[in-house]
Design a protein that fits this description.
Shape: globular
Helix content: 40-55%
Strand order of the largest sheet: 1-2-3-5-4
Radius of gyration: 21 Å
Strand content: 5-15%
Number of strands: 9
Largest sheet: 5 strands, antiparallel
Oligomer: single chain
Distance between the termini: 27 Å
Structural class: alpha+beta
């Protein structure tokens, strides 16, 4: 493991090897991971440096999926240079026009941008599964879905209860998901699930036409799984309120593109996967505070609880609803205290 000084020198050597030694470097906004980003400017030619130090990060899935998505005609960034052992990439620069920034500056563009994002998913899901999913990609199966839902139990529960819940509570939590909720998921053919498909990770590209105008970021954790997941992630955004009428319109736009797709089963999958993601995100945002000392995501927890509570009316989620009513009733769902930062929680 290198210290920060050694890593800075290695990154400089990497940049020099690929002709960027003299580029101006400016930090870009990071994310919830250990990755850092810098904009490189070499006499007006721009690129992005991804600094993803191993072993916490692995750039190889990002590289493979970026090339795969580009080959399918989607707007993933071109990988200009790579050093997987160092954990460094030089990427095509999409600029600063993330959907989030465009929406903040020009709210009237909202429907246009959500239509573009929905059309990206329509285009992806029209690709035959054997072409859409790279060979060897792992399945988003019930075990993985459960492992993610468990983040609420493992991190949020002890953060607000002061101690880990009982073994009996854990067993009941597992059965609420495995024995009821996930049994309601359809057996529709799986597709490529990008998993973090929301406006923070989408960019309006100056180049490209049609769905390629939508630049894609943060897809390295993609899996083979349910087709409803990414549309749900877009429309039930943990960081941004989406008007119900806009969400309904995008679901209708998607379903109209697949007239043979069973509406009831798709919307059921949407609800179940929504509850699973919201439980996961509450756990992740708590973990970012308790383990990593990152409190910035706490502000979103009330919204995510509202999204989860809205989904609990679905019959397949009756077990989850009952578990929450017993162990985490509405009055016991606060935002975790900032005092947890850096202290961890009982595991």
């Amino acid at each position: 493991m290198t210290d920060n000084t050694d890593r800075a020198e290695l990154l400089h050597v990497f940049l020099a090897r690929h002709g960027w030694a003299d580029a101006r470097r400016a930090p870009l906004a990071g994310d919830a991971s250990d990755r850092r980003y810098e904009r490189l400017d070499r006499d007006g030619t721009r690129a992005v440096l991804m600094d993803a130090p191993p072993p916490q990060e692995d750039v190889r899935p990002f590289v493979a999926l970026a090339r795969h998505l580009r080959a399918l005609g989607f707007g993933a960034p071109e990988v200009l240079a790579e050093d997987p052992e160092l954990g460094a990439l030089i990427l095509e620069d999409f600029g600063d026009a993330t959907f989030t920034r465009v929406l903040a500056g020009t709210p009237a563009e909202e429907r246009v941008l959500y239509e573009l994002a929905t059309d990206v998913l329509i285009g992806l899901h029209r690709v035959r599964p054997d072409r859409a999913v790279p060979e060897g990609l792992e399945l988003y199966n019930h075990k993985r879905l459960l492992d993610e839902a468990m983040l609420l139990f493992d991190w949020y529960c002890p953060a607000v209860m002061g101690q880990r819940a009982s073994v009996v509570a854990q067993r009941e939590f597992v059965m609420a998901w495995l024995g009821t909720a996930f049994m309601g998921l359809s057996d529709l053919p799986p597709t490529l699930v990008l998993r973090d498909f929301h406006v923070d990770n989408l960019v309006v590209r100056e180049s490209g036409e049609g769905i390629a105008r939508c630049g894609l970021l943060d897809f390295q954790d993609a899996l083979e799984g349910p087709r409803a997941y990414d549309l749900m992630s877009l429309l039930e955004d943990a960081r941004r309120d989406v008007a119900p009428e806009l969400a309904r319109a995008m679901i209708e736009r998607y379903l109209a593109a697949f007239p043979d797709l069973g509406r009831d089963q798709f919307t059921s999958d949407f609800a179940i996967l929504g509850a699973q993601r919201h439980a996961k995100v509450i756990g992740i945002f708590t973990r970012l505070l308790a383990r990593d000392g990152k409190p910035d995501y706490l502000v979103h927890i009330p919204r995510v609880w509202r999204l989860l509570e809205r989904r609990l009316d679905h019959p397949a989620l009756a077990g989850v609803r009952d578990w929450l009513a017993r162990y985490l009733p509405p009055e016991a769902r606060p935002v975790p205290a900032r005092a947890l930062a850096g202290k961890g929680v009982p595991r």
